[in-house]
Structures are given as C-alpha cells and as structure tokens.
C-alpha cells in the first residue's frame, strides 16, 4: 500500500462550487442533473441517457464509492456551495496506468444551464490546482473529440499543452470516426 491509498482527498471547496466524492443520498441530485442535461451531453458523453433514473444513479454512485475506497478511480460531483444542486461531474481517472504512475486523466461535464459561462474553465483550473497540491499526481491529462470545441478551448485556457492527435480514434454512434486531442499538464 502506498501513501496515496491512505490519503486520497475527498473534497475541494472552490469560490462558487464544491467538488467532492459521491455519498449515499446524492442519487436524486445526480439523476436530475444528468437527465436535465441530456441534450447538452449526448454528443460527447456516450454514457448519457435521455433519462437517468434514481436507481441507475444509485448504481453509478455505489460503483464510484467502491472504486474510490479501493483507490482505483476517483469520480467526483460538482455541487452548488450549499450542496443542494449538482452542477456537473468530474474526476481523476486512472487511464494511463495504475496509481503508481502518478498520472490521471481529468473528465468533466457541466450541467446544461451553466455551460458556456466559464464554469468548465473554473472547475478544470481547480482540479489542476487541487491535483498538483493535495494529490500526488505528477501528470494530469485531458482528452476530447477534435470537434468538441468548448472542451479543447477549456484545456487551452487552463494552460494544458496539446501533445497529440489520435486520428480516427473514436467511433461515433452514426459510424463516423473522429480524432481525439490529447492534452496534459505536468506538476513540474
Ligand atoms: C466541455 C465543457 C466541460 C466546457 O465547460 P463550459 O463551462 O461550457 O466551458 P467555458 O464556458 O468555461 O469555456 C468554453 C470556451 O469554449 C468556447 N466555445 C464553446 N463552444 C464553442 C464553439 N462551438 N466554437 C468556438 N468556441 C466555443 C467558449 O467561447 C469558451 O471560450 P472563451 O472563454 O475563450 O470564449 C461543457 O461545455 C460540457 O459539459 N460539455 C458537454 C460534455 C463534454 O463535452 N465534456 C468534455 C469531455 S472531454
């Protein structure tokens, strides 16, 4: 066991939002936020469904909590300061290798009504700051479809560097293929 397994942080309080690990009882907030945001999410988030029920959200949260406690994946919710509304989701995901690599990919979605108002940039910036201070990450990455203009722009605004373009990397639902842009920031 390494020190990170013992000390995975669970909460980051921003100026106008709270990022924290999911807890039992969050399922109605998650269900409402994802369902209301479906039209906004569906193009780039393959997991988005027209309606995500409370039961489905409960399963998502149970899995997220189990992964978090096993230090296998760190899925986080973004909440209003009073934590009565979910404003989106984010997380540190171990997609480049196990914990020992000290590298994680940041994922992010913003509730539809708050999109394109600067929140994605503020949350990604907070995740990078938090990730390089309270967490032991040495490399944080960000991947998006090349036609996801807002996502690429957010990474650039937060100072992440474009490292490459994976051509035809993702197959979309309509069968077409889209390039993936790979960004990263280093602790150093
Ligand atoms: C991508 C996402 C996280 C960005 O968050 P956001 O709060 O909308 O982003 P911000 O408002 O902070 O910044 C968006 C930037 O993209 C720009 N932008 C958005 N759509 C654009 C478009 N179609 N063309 C050009 N620029 C665009 C905005 O102008 C802004 O840049 P600016 O501040 O220089 O003007 C959010 O829109 C979202 O949840 N999208 C759906 C899920 C998703 O795609 N997640 C990312 C997966 S990698």
Report a brief summary of the structure.
The chain is α+β, with helices and mostly antiparallel strands. The chain has helices spanning 3-7, 27-36, 38-41, 54-69, 119-131, 149-157, and strands at 11-13, 18-21, 74-79, 86-93, 103-110, 139-145, 161-171, 177-186. The site of coenzyme A (COA) has 21 residues, from helix 3, strand 5, helix 5 and helix 6.
Low-confidence stretches: none
Named at the architecture level, the CATH assignment is 3-Layer(aba) Sandwich
Domain module count: 1
Question: What ligand species are in this complex?
Answer: coenzyme A
Overall shape: it is: globular
Give me the strand/helix succession: HEEHHHEEEHEHEE
CATH homologous superfamily name? Gcn5-related N-acetyltransferase (GNAT)
Could you walk me through the main structural features you see in this protein, from its secondary elements to its overall organization?
With 188 residues, the protein is of the alpha+beta class. It has a single domain (3-139), classed as Gcn5-related N-acetyltransferase (GNAT) (Aminopeptidase, 3-Layer(aba) Sandwich). The chain has six helices and eight strands, in the order αββαααβββαβαββ. The protein has helices at 3-7, 27-36, 38-41, 54-69, 119-131, 149-157; strands spanning 11-13, 18-21, 74-79, 86-93, 103-110, 139-145, 161-171, 177-186. Strands 1-2-3-4-5-6-8-7 form an eight-stranded mixed β-sheet, with helices on both faces. The mean pLDDT is 95. Residues 40-41, 44-45, 108-110, 115-121, 144, 148-151, 153-154 line the site of coenzyme A.
